[in-house]
């Protein structure tokens, strides 16, 4: 079964609310030799995007969207032993990242997956979760020397919290870089400038490339 087939089967089962079959599809892919990280990129991520599109078009309810998200979160949690089994502990990471959904933003699945991916890439990632106040994020940034602050927004109403967080962080003396992402930024990339971020990661691949660029620039200087 190809990853495309796995995605289509997984999407179908999750939309139907068939949790058992959803899990079986993923387990079969893993057992067939598909790296767990490819499941993130090619199955979970497009499922999340498609689910968001269906919700925006009123083709599925909020309750259905939440159920699909919860199902995926549970499956991801069960995959952790497979995903991180080959991750070698290193004394020196590539850098430190603080990642969160600021303010009243509750759509955390995407950024939670990104935290895992960046950690697999060798970065030291602190994931705070969703609904995190700007002041708490700022205080955390000041406790340790973070290289990158990553924030996610899915709903335009919550953009003000990313803007507030970045402004507070800079006012408090944060000198690192800021990366934003999420559905609302993909709809209108210029919102990156509105919130005051340095980079926009439109998907997981670009988010990884951004960190490569940040690391190269740091090494160059």
Structural summary, described in words:
By secondary structure, the protein is of the alpha/beta class. It has two domains: 3-83, Methyltransferase, Methionine Synthase (B12-binding Domains), Chain A, domain 1; 96-220, Rossmann fold, CATH 3.40.50. The chain is built from ten helices and five strands. Helix 5 (109-120) links the parallel strand 1 and strand 2 (124-132).
The first-level CATH class of the largest domain is given as Alpha Beta
Total number of beta strands: 5
Low-pLDDT residue spans: none
Number of domains: 2
Whole-angstrom Rg = 18 Å
Q: What's the CATH architecture name of the largest domain? A: 3-Layer(aba) Sandwich
Q: In what order do the strands lie side by side in the largest sheet?
A: 2-1-3-4-5
CATH homology-level superfamily of the largest domain = Cobalamin-binding domain
Helical content class? 55-70%
Distance between the termini: 46 Å
Q: What general form does the structure show?
A: globular
What CATH calls the topology of the largest domain is Rossmann fold
Largest sheet: 5 strands, parallel
**Tally of contiguous helical segments:** 10
User: What assembly state would you assign to the polypeptide chains in this entry?
Assistant: single chain
Beta-sheet strand percentage? Answer: 5-15%
Integer average pLDDT: 90
Based on secondary structure, the structural category is: alpha/beta
């Amino acid at each position: 079964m190809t990853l495309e087939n796995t995605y289509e089967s997984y999407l179908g089962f999750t939309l139907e609310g068939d949790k058992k079959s959803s899990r079986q599809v993923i387990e079969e892919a893993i057992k067939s030799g598909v790296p767990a990280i490819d499941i993130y990129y090619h199955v979970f991520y497009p499922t999340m995007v498609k689910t968001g599109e269906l919700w925006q078009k009123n083709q599925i309810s909020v309750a259905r969207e939440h159920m699909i998200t919860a199902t995926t979160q549970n499956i991801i949690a069960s995959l952790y032993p497979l995903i991180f089994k080959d991750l070698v502990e290193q004394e020196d990471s590539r850098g430190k990242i603080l990642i969160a959904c600021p303010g009243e933003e509750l759509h955390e699945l995407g950024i939670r997956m990104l935290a895992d991916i960046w950690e697999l890439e060798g970065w030291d990632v602190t994931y705070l979760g969703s609904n995190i106040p700007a002041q708490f994020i700022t205080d955390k940034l000041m406790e340790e020397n973070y290289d990158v602050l990553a924030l996610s927004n899915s709903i335009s109403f919550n953009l003000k919290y990313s803007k507030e967080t970045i402004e507070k962080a800079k006012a408090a003396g944060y000198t690192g870089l800021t990366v934003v992402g999420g559905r609302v930024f993909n709809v209108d990339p210029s919102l990156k400038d509105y919130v005051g971020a340095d980079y926009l990661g439109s998907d997981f691949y670009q988010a990884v490339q951004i960190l490569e660029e940040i690391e190269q620039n740091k090494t160059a200087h």
